[in-house]
Design brief:
Signal peptide: 1-22
Number of helices: 4
CATH architecture of the domain at 18-54 and 71-161: Sandwich
Radius of gyration: 52 Å
Strand content: 25-35%
Subcellular location: Membrane
Region (Disordered): 50-69, 217-250
Shape: rod-shaped
Membrane topology: Single-pass membrane protein
Main location: membrane
Distance between the termini: 189 Å
Largest sheet: 5 strands, antiparallel
Amino acid sequence: MQPPRSSHFFLLLLSLLTYATASILTITIPPSNLLPNPNSLPASTHATLTTLRSSPSAPSSSSSLGTSAPAGLRLKAPLSRKSSFVFNIPSGQVQGPQSFLLDVYSRDYVFAPYRVDVDADGNVAGVWETYRGNAWENRGVEKGMVQVGEVAVVEAKVMGTRKFYEERAGFSPLSLFKNPMILIVVFALGVTVGMPYLMDMSTSALFYDSQPPFHPTINAPSTNQPQKYSGPRDTRGIRETFPQGANSRG
């Protein structure tokens, strides 16, 4: 037996009224030094809002701005074309003030987690920075939030990049000189090869320094020393050139 159409219309009207009074939380990713172009993030990037008082038996629902679940469970929003995440927080399903943990999951980057407090009407009361292992009562630095009507806009913070593999540095000949053993071997080789040449040069310098200085008048050979006798001179050629009596008067 099919239910009457009036019940379907009543449920549809109730859901519209619930989402009409919902508060919208928008998480934007601004450009930064680590992430200059947020549009380069993969499509698998998403954000979640998780509360401590979750109820596993509560059903989940989806909205046009992103997949969401009733307050008290887990809200999830995919990455939009504007590099942002949009959460719908239905006020009709919030039972008193609640606190959510905002996590942004990305394949290549690590984002800082936030604490998001929501009041009983479903409005965002504040956003604070937090970290793993921190007591939930200890609130960190409050994030600046822009409130435009029912929409609260908060900027996400990139902490770093994910590295799954260690990059090995390429081989460089200059890296050998960073090894102390290589430096010791090079120094020992230089001393072994260069020390004999240094000693030879120093010995020659000492020898020349030990010699007396040279003086041209003192150290020059003497010309007054007696010459060695080499025997009688041969005068026959002189006699043939000048015969006897050639120069005598007739």
